[in-house]
Structure formats: C-alpha cells, structure tokens
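Assemble and predict.
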Amino acid sequence: MAAEFVGMGAARLAAAVAEGEVTAAALLEAHLDRISALDGEVRAWRHLDLEGARAQAAAVDAARARGERLGPLAGVPVGLKDIFVVEGMPTQCSSRMLEGWVPGYQGTHAQRMREAGAVLVGKLAMDEFAMGSSNENGPDPSVHNPWDLDFVPGGSSGGSAAAVAARMVPLSLGSDTGGSIRQPASFCGVAGLKPSYGRVSRAGMIAFASSLDQAGPMALEVEDLALALELLAGADPKDASCVDLPVPDLRAACRGELAGMRVGLHRAALGLEGLDAGVRACFEDAIARMREAGAEIVDIELPHFDAAVACYYVLCTAEAASNLARYDGLRFGHRVPDADLEVQYAKSRASGFGDEVKRRIMLGTFVLRADSYEAYYGRAMKVRRKIAEDYTAAFARCDLIASPVSPVAGFRLGERVDDPLAMYLSDVFTVGVNLAGLPALSVPSGFAKVGERELPVGLQLIAPAFEEARLFRAGAAFERLTPALRERVPPLLAKGGA
Amino acid sequence: MSLHDYELVVGLEIHCQLATRSKLFTDCPFDTGGEPNTRVDPFTLGWPGTLPVPNAEAVRLATRLALALDCELQAHSRFARKHYFYPDLPHGYQITQADAPYAKGGAIPFAPGKALPLERIHMESDAGKTTHGVREGVSGVDYNRAGAPLVEIVSLPALRSAKDAAEVLRSLRQLVRWLGVSEGDMEKGSLRCDANVSLRPRGVEALGTRCEIKNLNSFKFLEAAIGAEARRQADLLDRGEAVVQSTMAYEVDADRTWVMRSKEDAADYLYFPEPDLPPLRLEAAWLDAQREALPELPGPRRDRYLAAGLSDYDAEQLTADRATGDYFDAVCEAGAGAKAACNWIIGELAAAMKAEKLEMVACPVTPAQLAEIIALVEADTINGRAAKQVFEAVFAGEGAPREIVERKGLGQVSDRAALEAVVAEILAAHPDQLAALRGGKAKLRGFFVGQVMKQTRGRANPQVVQALLDAAIAER
C-alpha cells in the first residue's frame, strides 16, 4: 500500500500526505523497509533515528487530523549528510575524532527542514570531514553505488546520493566544497544543487573549508531541489556570510523553457586529457538536445580554468587545517589521555583523524607557514580572483555555462585510494564554481560505459551568483527532454527492494 | 657605562576589554566574574558547526575609542585567524585583525603637550583562563572570558621613561572610562599592558634590540618592570653582550625581569584571513555620526577650565572623570561662578559623596540646586556657615535651598541697626575683655565676633559685624 509511494518525489509525497492518500507514519515505514532491504549492500546510512523519525511522522499525522496547515515537506522522509548538526543526534562527520559527540544545539538546516514538516530519518555516510571524492575516507565501511555495487558512489556526499538513488529517501542534504554534491549526484544518477556561496546558512554544518562550503539538496527531481532550496535559503543570524537576499519562486522557474537561453560552452575543457569518451559523448548529446530545444549555444573562454584544481587544493587545505584545529581531544570527541598535554594533542589527533584528513592538515599547515604563505596561500587567493573574473566575463556572453560534472562516469571501490593526486585532478570541472562562489546544478543526462558496466552521467549547469532560478529553468526543462532517464532505476531495486 | 649612558626606548601594547553585554562574535552574555563556565554557549566552546557573527556594539565601542585617539579609521578592515594550541583557546585559533586593522595611527595624550603616537588599534577576541592546581594535579579551564571583546592598542616605540609609560596607561584608563568603552580595571584585567623595552647609547639613532615584558597589570608594576628590564639590558650591554629579542616576565618580589622565551622559539601562528567573516566595512556616514557623538575629551576640557581661570589643580580634579566635569559645567550653566562651583564640587560635594560612597551620576544635589546655594551666598542672603547647613539639608533630600533657608531661618542678618544693638550688648557684658582688646590684645576680636554669631544663631553677616566692632573699639 504505502510501498507504491516509494520512489516518488518529495513534493508529490508531501501532497499525498496533505491529501490524506497516505499517512506520514506509513510513508516512513515504507521507506524504512526500503532502507532495511537495501542498506546492507549500499551502506548509505551512518545513523538511523527510528524513534525520533516515528515521533515526527506521528506529529505530522496528528497535526493533519487536527486540521492544521501542513508544511511544504510534511511527512516527507529526509536524510542528512553526517556533516549536519542535529540536536541530540550523533553527529560525527564520519570521523573517529567526533566519536560520541551528540550536539547540544540545533543546526539551521535541521531546524528549517523540521519546520517544513520533514521527517528526519537519520545521518548519511560521507568522506571523513567531507574530504574525498569516493566515500572511502574514514573509519566506516565504504558506501556502494546503487547502480553497481562494485563502484563508488562519489563523494563526499556519497551517502546522500546513494540513499536517493536507491529510493531510500526522496530528498537528502549534502554539502559541496569542491563538487561534493554534484559529483556523487552524477555518479548515482540523481539531481544535486550547490547553491551560491551565502545563499544557504552554514550554521550547523561542520566546517571543512569555510569560504567554499555550501549546503545543498539532492533529489530525484529538479523541482524537489527547488522546493528544498526555497526552504533552506535565506539569511541566518548565526552565519555572517549568509546573505539577506529574497529567494525567488524557484518552483515557478522550473516551469520555464530552454528556448531563448544562451548556454555557454567552454570548448577548451573538452580537450582535457582524462575526459572519458563516454562522458564526453553524453555531454555533447546534452548540448545537442538543448540546442534543439531552442537554447543558443555560445562559446566562452575561462583562461584560468587549468589553475583551478591547484588553487582549490591550496585554499581548501589551508582552511581545513585551521577549522580542524579545534579537535584537540579536550572538550569533545576522541581523546588519547596522556600526562603531557602536547603528547595528548598529538596522540589524539594522530589516531582520531584518517589519512586523507591528516594529509590535508599537513598541506594546509604548510601553505600557511609564514615562509610559504605568499608563494602558496597569497598566490592562490590572487588566482581565485582571476577565476572569479573569468566567470564574470563569460556570463556577459551567456546566461548559463554547461560542462561535464566529472571527467569519468565512475570508478571501482579501492581503484584510486592510493593515488590522491589523481583523485584531486578529477575535481577539475567542479572546483572553479566553489572558488567563484557560483551556484551549479548536476542533473542526470545519460549513461556511459565503464569497462563492461554502465553508469549514470550528470550534466553540470552553472549560473552567476544568486541566479539559481536560471538553473532551475534550464535544469527542469532538460529533465523534461530526457523522460527515459527517469524510467531507468538501479538494477538493485528491481532485484527485491521495491 | 651606566644606565645614564643609554637612552631608554619604550613602546606599549595595551589590551582593553570592551564594555559590551555580549561577546565579540556571539550573543552569549558576558560580564566579569561568575562561576566558571557559566558565560558560555556553543560558539564560545568551539562546538562544530558554530560560526562567528560580529557584535555591532563592540565595533561601535572600538570605533569610539579610535576616534577619540584621533586614529585613521579604515573603511575596510579584515579579521584573521591566529593559531596555537592551548586548552583555553577552544577553536585552536584566536580571531584577531592582522594585516588589516580597523584603525591606524593616532596618539594617546598623557600630559599637557605630550602624546604617545600609535601604530594601530585592532579588535580581537580574548582567550579563556587556565588555572593550574584547582585540585591536586588538576588544571581547570574557565571559558567565561573566551571570546570577550578586546581592542589591542599598539604604540610606536616613542616613550623615553618608565614614568611616562605609567602616565600613558593612566590617561588611557581615564579615557576609556570617560567614553564608556571599557571598565578600564587593571585588577579585573579589563585593561592589560605589555611593554617593549630597548636601550640605545645616547646620541645613536638606531633602535636597540627590544624585549617584550608581558602582563603588567598595575601602573606601579609597569613602571617598575620597565626599570628592571632597562637595568638588565644595561648590564648586558656593559659587559659587551648582546640583548636577545625575548619575551620577558616581571617578578614583583625580586623586582627583576626574566626570559620566558626567546625569539627563536617563537611560534608560527599561521595567520590568514578569517574565512567565516566578510570584511568589516565602516561607512563614512556612520563614522561621522560616531564622531559627532563623541563627548568633549579630557584634554580640551582641561584647557577650557584653565582658560576659565581655574588652577592646574582644580582643572585636574574636575577632569578626573567625565561626570564630575559635566556636573561642574551644569552648575556654571545654572549661573554659578567657576571658582565657587569648583570649590563646592571638589570640597563639600566630593566629601559628602565619598562619605555616602556615591558615584557622581547618583548625586542627590542637582547642579541647579548647588548653583542656587552659591547664588544665595553671593547675594549675602546666607553666610558661608549657613550655606554648609543648607547644602547638607539639600543633600539629605530635605528640599530646595531657598525653602530650607526660610524653613530653618538661616537667612543672614545684615541689618546694621539690629546688629549694632547686639554688638553693644555683648561689649557691655564683657568689659574686661573689651579693655584688653583696646589695650592691644587683637586676638580677642575673634571672641567678640563669636559671641555675636552665637547670639544671632550664626546668621549675622560677618562683614557687618566686623565693621561694627571696629567702630565700637575705636569709640572709647
């Protein structure tokens, strides 16, 4: 009965609850059934709050019974990346360092989701402290891509992407510092939005690199992203970098057309060594569809495109080294006691952080040292400005920029764990967006072969800062151009989940 | 060579805690005192996911101070993170301003014609407090102070004596209290001072190597520590040894400084712009409004009082704090003469306030009332002795001066005829004394005046009585 709702979008489910087609409680149980059926293989969840979720669902049903007006996400099960603070819910950022930490305050994202009536099911797996592109970093078992369990789901919001792809929840929240929403969305065949820097509060989202981090939604449908962003966006007195701008009607924007939009194409990037042929073909196909739908494709230049990855890894590691300084084992989380304070710091941090996190702390500490600051951090800040200027100049010629999300459709678990540099370089299409503070959408655009297997591929659309409405207009229109993509589900689901 | 062969060069770094109700980057309430860890919130404790949000009141107070010190306020400034690991620093970094402070230049005036030029003032958040041995083998950390708003005032190395250094700090304390930007309490730590000290042979331009003495928390210690450090450096130089740039501590009992750490051990603080905070923008119109809102400052006020004919001492007393001068101005405004107003305020009024342990702002005598008392004296309506009684009654809340004069019958008797009768009566009653007075025992004049005052219950106009006595003695 309620099982038939599993796989539907968030807006549709909220309507079903509001109309009385299904109760929030039944909806939750149906999704929990899906989770228990599949999560043994996918491993998307770090923490399930069954008791809390059931109480929230019951509260929604009670409110409806009393005839109260329900929120726009009332009764919709939602998962949060383990980077989001939820009062009273273990929040660990997938790190041993935060073992046992249960936040004593409510994060803005959890609060706004709850106010909208969402049922917070639990916490989703991620790369430790959001550092990684494969969900293999950290003390926990890796997440598997629901489309092919031998493959990674992408990262760092891999759990958030996999949970939506496996229809365990219709909507999840991720965070994106250099592509951490868009790349796993692409790998898992779901839609994901990285909002403009400052559009969504960062209060209650554990910091990786403060000037780059943004929270954003992941869903099966572009319109659900619009709904979620409308709820998440807006000034927050707890975050000085969150801007006080009106949030336009983003769901209305989803009804717009591609016709009349100028879509910028950075052709030079398509010659990139390492860009998979299947991914490239998928992208060219997407461009052709957009042109057919009436979009004007214009060539643009991004002269500093090649410098973005290096620039990004200098800045994000510097900020990470600083943001992670507070994890000293004294006030919360993991501690290795020692009579000598310095030794205790060293032991706690050495055993609490995983390899990738420690690598980035060391890199970041190096670039901030007084004798290397100018050559690295100072220079990277200058390059960052150039990159932002490139985008500004490009947007004088177009409304949006289209590009692949990742140079590859995916890779196998374990395939790249020993080659961090290759992992970093695969962020080439996504990091510039964060450096420039722009909003970008990853929307499913097709499939590509990886060896014998076939995996989803996303299309990235980038807009000027605070022009998310353009992304929704183009993204939803593109989604309507590719209805067959929505019909195809991960083989795992056919096997027995649903 | 001896100390006299060297010139002492001193620069100061002064931390001043801003008198806000909440901390610099969170609305967590803040005041001094309180049980440990009762003035904390998720941000103060560095909990993951919390972010700094600037306190507008702290920015206003910091701006007010910088304007009063004639600094160049920066339209754009920026916060930075300064990193080090210590238990009382919950984030692992302090939020401060490094390469882009909000105020540059300016000076602290500290004596007529003398001022210590400043390099800069910046805002920063305070650390918590670690106490070792709260129990056997246990150190405690109190985060109440963590995140408290500070300004750090950094001077140029422009002082030439330890005494001037203490004067600067006194003047600054007066100013921050005057402006209401800080309690300026060295004992409670809301005003703290480090001193950079170096010596150079007299006549040499180049500065010597400096050492920084940390945590000088009284005027006396500041002065003494600079002296002790100067002696230490002079000894080294005399022996032909080099001064090594170091951070020093001052040991009060031994009156000596010792090396805490040398420059080589100095930490790399990994400074970089605070990515959680947008640049701080001070708009011109807002700055103008802040400048407009500044009160008259101690220096100009002292000059004005001197110009009004008051002595150095009087001007000093009246500018000790802003409320006293404001009161004085109001008394003068109500018609009193400057000298009389000053005498009353630093005399009777100050004594009464001190006895009642009252602050100037809580003064029970309004400036208009004091001016009225002064006017009554000047109009010969009451004499000085009665004036004191009137003052006491007004202070005790018994009513307005003129009413009190009437109710208590304190009005002065200046009527010659009436007083003549009294004088005659007194002289007649004391023939021996009168004879002695006439015989040259001048001291007895006082006796007769006293008798007349006694007879009139203090109301006789002393000048009239004197004149009548003169006439009577001369009569024979």
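The longest strand of chain B covers residues 6-17.
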